[in-house]
Amino acid sequence: MTPPFRKVLIANRGEIAVRVIRACRELGIIPIAVFSEADRDALHVRQAFEAYCIGPAPSAESYLRMDRILEVAREAGAEAIHPGYGFLAENAVFAGKVVEAGMAWIGAPPAAMQVMGDKVSARQAMLAAGVPVVPGTTEPLSDDDEAVRVAAEIGYPVMIKASAGGGGKGMRRVESPDQLASALRGARSEAGSAFGDDRIYVEKCIDRPRHVEVQIFSDGHGHHLHLFERDCSVQRRHQKLVEETPCPVLTPETRAAMTQVATRAAAAVDYRGAGTVEFLLAPDGNFYFLEMNTRLQVEHPITELVTGVDLVHAQIAVAAGEPAPFTQDELSQNGHAIEVRICAEDPANNFVPCPGRIDSVRLPGGPWVRVDGAMFGGYEVPIFYDPMLAKLVVWGRDRPAAIQRMKRALSELVVSGIRTNIPFFIQVMRHGPFVEGDYDTGYIERHLGKDLRLDDGSKAEIAAVAAALAAFRSEQARARRVEPAGGPGAGSSWTMAGRLKRLGRS
Ligand code: MV4
User: What is the position in ligand 1's atom list of the atom closest to the CA of 159?
Assistant: First the structure.
């Protein structure tokens, strides 16, 4: 089998760059890495065949520099560019430049990115395609009176959203007409400063929704396929923490309807490649289009584990003009998969990012455990980028088996030297409501500080340090009795404490 491309440049860093490099290697493609000055020692640089520095640490001066990346791609003789997720992945201008330069773009068509990049235009396109959208306006609001009228019509509570929005920015929940004026003002100014675009619109608020998304895959030969759903409701402040598939509450009928709607959405924007159609699933079983992500997503591995499809292989194939390497009939959901996002952050301190130097890593293994990561012992987590270190992904024949395996894998995983959210996930896997599948997008906020506690892990770490220090002191006291001053083992415990402090561990 001849590879579809000889060389592919990966315009990204971290675990997703490593993930794409792995696919390239399996396909006999030469992977080319780019890196910032902060990523000289990063894993994706070590694993690539060639690696080029594209600028200083801040992403605006490196991973977002279209000109530098294109220059490197030409110089290296890349035939295609894979953008990963984030950075330039959903940038229609960059995609256009890649194609203009005569290279293949292993991503979404620029036109689809444009339509889906704006919420109002996405809603209009979906409405026209017969996809259920949340009831509300289909044009940006022209004035406050219009908002008052529409809100009364659809009924409170309503949501004010920014047309250019994403990640909850510029979003306001409004309970009653008297709150409307101030919410409109707030949303407008937040959207204006965040996106340079203050267009806003109103829609009905869906209470206690689940975030269920459908993986779609299109090949440019008229096939718009789906690879079922993922439930990503376990999130905090719009950061996903746990994802699973199948969604534990989706009925076969709703699944059939949702996946069919998702492929219709893909067809409506003439999609090609891997994409995700996000829905809000209401407690009454109704679902509504939320947005479409025109990229490969962080949580794609759980879909790979239950379908057996390598989505990056498939992306590369269709970017080379081949048909999808599978048909809808060949796809089914086999068993259950769960992913947790391991981050350098401190759950005891409100999940603040907690970069630093990793002392050592012990990865879990054994049957049906997958780690997609870019961390290793001695790695310095840069402060400039997302603090995600790795994704821990497990498969089980059913949901209880997958949860049990995730607990086992989490207990094997050790990341020392920095704080991580590993102890938090151990609690989630034991938490009654999660185990029952009884959660929605408000799950973490509702349980945090009550029956989901955050400080257990860090207390265990402090206890471990205290125990080590006590052992060290007693060892020293014993050594001092048999050795002359200044000999091996000399040095007070305060010296040791000082060293620990300099290492940022006390
Ligand atoms: C909503 C909603 C309820 N009703 N829209 C949050 C991020 C943005 N992409 C859409 N979001 C929501 N839109 C209506 N009409 C609730 C949310 C929401 C949410 C959605 C998906 C995943 C997590 C969420 C957390 C809080 C709120």
Answer: 15
The residue out of 204, 224, 253 marking a domain boundary is 204
481 token code pair? 């009795």
Higher confidence at residue 166 or residue 442? 442
| Residue located nearest, by CA, to atom 18 of ligand 1 | 441
Neighbours of 176 (CB within 10 A): 10
CATH number of the domain bearing residue 18: 3.40.50.20
Using the predicted structure, report yes or no on whether residue 87 has a pLDDT greater than 70: yes
Q: Which protein residue's CA is at the shortest distance from atom 7 of ligand 1?
A: 168
**CA 142 – CA 163 distance, rounded (Å):** 13
CATH number for position 145 = 3.30.1490.20
In-domain check, residue 127: no
Same structural domain, 251 and 189: no
pLDDT tens column, 19-37: 999 999 999 999 999 999 9
Amino acid at 391: K
In a domain, 318, yes or no: yes
What's the structural domain count of the chain?
Answer: 4
Catalytic positions are 295
Strand boundaries in 222-264, DSSP class E: 224-236, 239-245
Using CA atoms, how far apart are residues 342 and 422, in angstroms rounded to an integer?
A: 6
> What is the pTM for the complete model shown?
0.90
CATH code assigned at 268: 3.30.470.20
Residues 151 and 232 in one domain: no
- Is 405 part of a structural domain of the chain? yes
175 pLDDT higher than 50: yes
Pocket test for ligand 1, best of 171, 233, 247, 293 (most atoms within 8 A of CB): 171
Q: Please check whether residues 174 and 265 belong to one and the same domain.
A: no
Q: Is the separation of the CB atoms in 476 and 493 below 8 Å?
A: yes
Boundary (domain end) residue, out of 157, 188, 204:
204
269 lies in the same domain as 381: yes
Provide mean pLDDT across the span 115-133.
97
Q: What are phi and psi of 100, to 5 degrees?
A: -60, -35
Same domain assignment for residues 397 and 280: yes
- Residue located nearest, by CA, to atom 6 of ligand 1: 168
One domain for residues 444 and 471? no
Ligand 1 nearest atom to the CA of residue 232, by list position = 22
Separation between Cα atoms, residue 384 and residue 35, nearest integer Å: 13
Range of the domain at 487: 462-502
Give the Å distance between the CA of 303 and the centre of ligand 1: 22
For residue 168, the CA-to-ligand 1 centroid distance in Å is: 7
Q: Is residue 325 over pLDDT 70? A: yes
Among 290, 291, 439, name the best residue to mutate to test ligand 1's pocket (greatest count of ligand atoms within 8 A of Cβ). 290
Half-sphere exposure of 227 (CA within 13 A, CB side): 28
Whether the predicted pLDDT of 459 surpasses 80: no
Tokens describing residue 501: 């402090």
Pocket of ligand 1 (CB under 6 A): 134, 159, 168, 171, 203-206, 209, 211, 235, 238, 280, 290-291, 441
Residue with CA nearest ligand 1 atom 23 = 441
